[in-house]
Amino acid sequence: MPIKQYTPHPSLRSFPVFARKTYCIYFVLYGGCTLASGNVAGNSISETMLLWLSCAVLVVLLCLHRASCFRSCFTLLPGPNFRQYLPNGTVFPLYRDPSKMLRVIVALSKTYGNVFQLWLGPLDTVITSVPTDVAQILSATHLFERPRAMQRMFEAVVPGSLVCTPRHLHAVARRHLRNNFNFTLLEGFHLHMTDAAVELCQVLSDIEERTPPGILSAPFNISEQLSIAAFRVILNVAFGCNLDREQRLHFAKCTDRLVDEMMLDFVGHPLRQWLSNFGSRSRLFNASQKVNEFCQTFILERLGETEEQSRRRPQDLLDAIIDLERADVDKVTSQVVVFAVAGAHTTSETLAWSIYETCCNPSVAHYIHDELQRLLPQKSIHENLSHDEVSKLKYLRNVWKETLRKHPPGPMFARRAVKDVHLSGSGTFVPKGKTVVALSQGSHMDRNVWNKPQLFSPERWGEPNREGEKNSSGAYVPFSVGGRACPGRFLADHEGVLILAEMHRRFEFRLACDADSVASCSGWAEFSRAAAKGQRYEAGLPISLVRR
């Protein structure tokens, strides 16, 4: 394919070599103030002084050692100029608050197009939302691997897990886990999912009963309730662990803190790693330890089972992980943390986004209720939905798919080129060792693929000739594709439809805030968070409800 030629953007002509050097020095100083020293509240004064001294030394070392690396390899691509990396610039919020990463990158893509250049810390990076590029980056694991910043982050938190495994070992491990944990077990898992949905609906009923009949309930954080339900499913189905609601809520909050620290560690690479001895990663390690200790309680219990106890219960993912890691407690713990955190966050946040979209689009909520009434006319709300009944809810499944399109849990994937490569869609040349980000949030909204992509339209799906079912490669990749795609997506797809069905059978939902005050916050998955103007997005999704 001919290589697409790019005309130098005016912003790059105002971003000369000396400005790039200045930016890298600025990044070191700013990173030392906010990212590296963000965790030194408990350190002694001498340690803090050493931290600042280290930042000054790093400025000199970075200038001497990396002077030749300040030139962007993507100078033919458009991108933000030097001023945008300074306070009040469009890029600056990414470093001040890493949870804004997706919002910043999406805003930049609207300005500079489907392919553009961005400095992430001291590294020049190409961002692409061209669907064919996205598909290539995600599926060609022999050409692209996780970047060092991400590897260092995962090695600190979940060493030896799937996300840290070399490509040839990764394929073997995935094959083993897939053979023991796949969609053939779904019907057996349905009962556990139903229990979680029933518990969730009972909590919502208790909230509704505090208000007079026919009146909207007081606002509450539905994100928190969905998180508790999702953790019940993943802990029960995958690991055979039964915890009460308070324990699950505590675990969910611990994982939220861990994810926040992981984002800081990723954006703060390599400063936080270099300054680790001064406490720059202390909160990351503390958060990781709490999650590990929580998981090890049921891991050690499983390892202590007798053969007779093991035979009496169904086999699950934890058995497969223990067999894979030969009962090495640390490695088993790392694998469990990956599946527990990623699995629960992915499902709960997609559920929250679905509720948000149905509140913003009342006609969609009407069609959901109409389908439930039409297909289940005699079904009492006191009777649980069967596996087959959930499978018949085609419109609700389309709602789930459309939610994943507009709000993919994995909206961007950072990779590093293993060798020189040309991206197959845009023709962009990526030199060996350089970072490229596949912006799937952008490919999901590509106007060349999707008709009115900003519209939430479940009607895109369902029939073979509809655009959702025949979209081009890379235009719909909510769980990634290829060898590193999410292995638990079959679980999320059924669980999501089941829980939505049970909720919509019983309640009508209303946003308890302005729709514009809800924003996406970057973490392991994209969280839906709301806040009043000028406040941080920490409140989850505020919802009111009324019984049908």
Short description:
The chain is of the alpha+beta class and 548 residues long. It is 52% helix and 9% strand.
Key attributes of the depicted protein:
548 residues; alpha+beta; Cytochrome p450; five-stranded mixed β-sheet; three-stranded antiparallel β-sheet; 21 helices
List the helices and strands and how they pair.
Elements: H1 10-13, H2 17-36, H3 45-65, H4 92-96, H5 101-112, E1 115-120, E2 123-128, H6 131-139, E3 144-145, H7 148-157, H8 167-180, H9 186-208, E4 220-221, H10 222-239, H11 245-267, H12 271-274, H13 282-303, H14 307-312, H15 317-324, H16 329-360, H17 362-375, H18 387-391, H19 394-406, E5 413-417, E6 421-422, E7 429-430, E8 435-438, H20 440-443, H21 489-506, E9 507-511, E10 518-522, E11 526-530, E12 542-547
Parallel strand pairs: 2-8
Antiparallel strand pairs: 1-2, 3-5, 4-12, 5-8, 6-7, 9-12, 10-11
Protein name: Cytochrome P450 family 808G-CYP808G1
Binding site for heme: 486
Pfam family, one: p450
CATH architecture term? Orthogonal Bundle
The third-level CATH topology is Cytochrome p450
* Main sheet summary: 5 strands, mixed
Overall body shape: globular
Which band does the percent of strand residues land in?
A: 5-15%
Oligomer: single chain
The CATH class: Mainly Alpha
Uncertain segments? 1-19, 39-47, 66-70
Task: Give the averaged pLDDT, no decimals.
Answer: 86
Distance between the termini: 57 Å
Helix content: 40-55%
Helical segment count:
21
CATH superfamily: Cytochrome P450
Lateral strand order in the biggest sheet:
1-2-8-5-3
How many discrete domains?
A: 1
* Beta strands, count: 12
Structural class: alpha+beta
Radius of gyration: 24 Å
